[in-house]
Design goal:
single chain, two-stranded antiparallel ribbon, 2% strand, globular, disordered C terminus
Amino acid sequence: MHGIWTVWAPPLERTKLVSFSFAGAQFGTIIGLPLSGWITDALGWPYIFYIFGGIAVLWFILWIVLVSNTPATNRFITTEEKDYIESEMSKISDGEPVTFRNTPWISIAKSPAVWAAACTHFCHNWGFYTLLTCLPTYMKDVLRFDLQKDALISSLPYIFMWLFIPSTGYAIDVAREKQILSTTAARKLVTFIGFLVPAACLTAIGFVGCNTTLAVALLCICGAFDGVSQTGFNINHLDIAPKYASILMGVTNTIATIPGFLGPQVVGWLTTNNSTSEQWRSVFYISAEIYVFGIIIYMLLGSGAIQPWATSQVLYEPVSTEDTNGDCDLLSTMDQPALRDSNSVPA
């Protein structure tokens, strides 16, 4: 998706556009969890794969028909919208195509901003995958929910996550456009809040015992603020290197996929035999601590400025070290002010 948004999302609209598209994944979870229970009960578990696979094929057909690589090649876009997008994107693009050979791999590997995004992505996914893959087990074994009958309850955290992702994305772009927050300040703010609140909620869940109402409420709050955090690190690739955003997402997402198979293994080791609330307390503690670690790393190394290695044939102007950790803002011409999607906007 980042490869598409690189040429489709104007700098000061990228948060709301990208977050809206990412919210679709949570909408799929909202539909998928209860629907899977009903399908299993009515038709048997194999039909889960048949039905969802069929829906994926229909989506693929729509994608082929409706989506194009650039605004210039899209059949459905208006001339006014195409001109606006191309005008905005020309300010941060030098027009040189990205290839394997001209990608600055060494600079990417040495970039603190890239490592901050990768580490934060990993820490987020540890908490997210723990909930996604293991929440049904916790609700069944500890909270004693019947997942077929109470499938909607297991979807509640993702409903809140789905609602908070696009709404936060819109609010962040408004704050950036009105110069209330710089890009760096905005990304760090949502990451800080979006990690700290879930960490606190997961810690608290370990002490609620069998109070199902409170446990579900805390999980919903956790899901909501997890959604807030996704408007930070998940979009940061487009901030620091719009030209190479799809490559960076591939790199950080590869690292961030590790919790997808490691997290459930850890849960399995900690919740042996008949899982209890005490055993799950350790699971939630680990997730909370990883969230806090992600906050520390991103606060120290994270940036919203275009990195010097991320573009060519442009000029740079140093800005406040308080905001960019020594990064530079992009100037596409001699007399053009620094772009507002970088960190020239006062924090």
